[in-house]
């Protein structure tokens, strides 16, 4: 946030209902909460990596698809946790909620479910309703991935455009 100038009429405007000490106390509480969330996410990521390592060890004795699918499922969950950690870090740094990391988490989570459902659908091949249900879920998740991707693209495109409130003298002279 740029420093306020002395001739700025908003320089002395205080948030309604809170003194500076109250606002500062809320900022400290907010930072502590974000720190707790970040710590929890870091510990969760390391625990998940340990579980993935333990599950990978099971691949030595069992060459079926089940342990491999479990490892893939856990690793995709680690990606989700790391992206959530990035979202928390970005929120703390910018002091605003940024949508893009959450869109990426949604894409990764949807892809994770598509992978799991596709393996389940392959094992349910020929069983009728169960297979059809899995295919519908995969289709809905596929559409969700496309929509989240388009939303992320549009968000990035919007961020590259100049602000709408920009009152530069060259605007509108075309």
Automatic annotation (TrEMBL):
Location in the cell: Cell membrane
InterPro entries hit by this protein: P_starv_induced_PsiE-like (IPR020948)
Protein name in the entry: Uncharacterized membrane protein (DUF373 family)
Top-level division of the source organism's lineage: Bacteria
GO cellular component, one term: plasma membrane
Residue ranges of the TM segments: 32-51, 71-90, 102-126, 138-155
Record keywords: Cell membrane, Membrane, Transmembrane, Transmembrane helix
One Pfam family in the UniProt entry: PsiE
Membrane topology of the entry: Multi-pass membrane protein
